[in-house]
Specification:
Radius of gyration: 32 Å
CATH topology of one domain: Topoisomerase I, Chain A, domain 4
CATH architecture of one domain: Orthogonal Bundle
Order of helices and strands: HHHHH
Structural class: mainly alpha
Number of strands: 0
């Protein structure tokens, strides 16, 4: 029973006022909104943004233009790989160098694909999402560039396999 007065003093001390400002427990503005009121729907754009269409079109065009240079470099590397003697011979080294040139010529497709993904990420970050029309345009451009990139990767793999024999 001796500890009871001490416990009572501590409990009463906890109820004392302090200089701390606590948040108000009064009604907030959001609580005044009738929850049964309909939420207005956001307008959904049926056309993609002009800036996105222009940027995506440029990336696809650059990829297709660079694909011609890749095809030329890959054809040269393929021809040299076919003619190469054994591993570590002079002709094999020349074919490897030509293959490196083809790999370098593939860079625009890989870069364009990365830029398309970055464009989508920037839209999400800036606007909190992507409109349906913008998303469709981004996906369409990404598919076109990914097709070129995938074909180029398969060509590189085929030439590398030829040189590995």
């Amino acid at each position: 029973m001796r500890g009871f007065p001490l416990l009572l003093a501590v409990a009463v001390g906890g109820c004392a006022t302090s200089d701390m400002t606590a948040p108000s427990l009064g009604r907030r503005a959001a609580e005044a909104i009738d929850p049964r009121a309909p939420v207005p729907e956001l307008a959904v754009a049926s056309q993609p943004s002009a800036g996105i269409v222009d940027r995506l079109g440029l990336l696809v065009a650059q990829t297709l233009a660079a694909d011609a240079a890749f095809r030329s470099a890959a054809a040269n590397a393929d021809r040299l790989a076919e003619a190469a003697a054994g591993s570590q011979t002079e002709s094999w080294i020349v074919a490897q160098q030509a293959l490196s040139g083809a790999v370098a010529a593939r860079a625009p497709a890989s870069s364009a694909l990365a830029e398309i993904n970055e464009l989508a990420a920037q839209r999400i970050q800036a606007l909190g999402g992507i409109g349906a029309a913008d998303l469709e345009a981004i996906n369409r451009a990404a598919a076109q560039v990914a097709e070129v990139d995938s074909r180029q990767a398969a060509t590189i793999d085929r030439i590398q396999a030829r040189l590995a024999r």
